[in-house]
């Protein structure tokens, strides 16, 4: 295989190797499992087509039926080697679209959230409008249209990179309006919005070579004493997994992880039984 990177689809916890069958790491001494996800190119289409709707004819479950539940949001942190580059704590306030408009400034990153859906990110460019990646196209729409009733929040501080000047952020976003399909360099709305604000190639498709030891760690924080760490070879891959966890929710992630660790322990026991 050499340095060739094969195209793989997402693997859930039950399909990846683990080095420790005991599960959670109460002492937080380091990664418990080493995982590298390489996502297929159509993963963003799956996300946006099925779960990132905002059009009037959307077939997704209505947001009134599934309001955002902050209790089901999973705290996490992303590390590049020993440096924390992203951190989310639970309890961040969300606002109605109308209230959010009063708080926005050009260049702000916005995140719209609803239970059971991938978070949808956008860049506020002024005049009540945002630029965002949706259904394999970068669009310029009114904030209230994009939200479709979802609550939103300003998320400038989640990534700990130095932001570009507001006018550069807005220009980055507007310059790509109309780009679609093969012209796109981002897998999802979060990668595009974050690239506009920080300008780092790591947010782009293929922005980092996936060779050698995984330099990124995604730390999942279930409680003060329970955490779990996954390892990845690129920021792009970490974001894909983080977004999947946001979509299925904290309880589902915990159950999925517990099922995998129990299954791994059983397999190891069977392997050593004569």
UniProtKB/TrEMBL annotation:
UniProt region (Disordered), positions on chain: 1-49
Pfam families the UniProt entry points to: LRAT
Highest taxon of source: Eukaryota
InterPro entries reported for this sequence: LRAT_dom, LRATD1_LRATD2
Record domain LRAT: where: 110-205
Gene3D superfamilies named in the record: endopeptidase domain like (from Nostoc punctiforme) (3.90.1720.10)
Identification of the protein by name: LRAT domain-containing protein
Source species: Amphiprion ocellaris (Clown anemonefish)
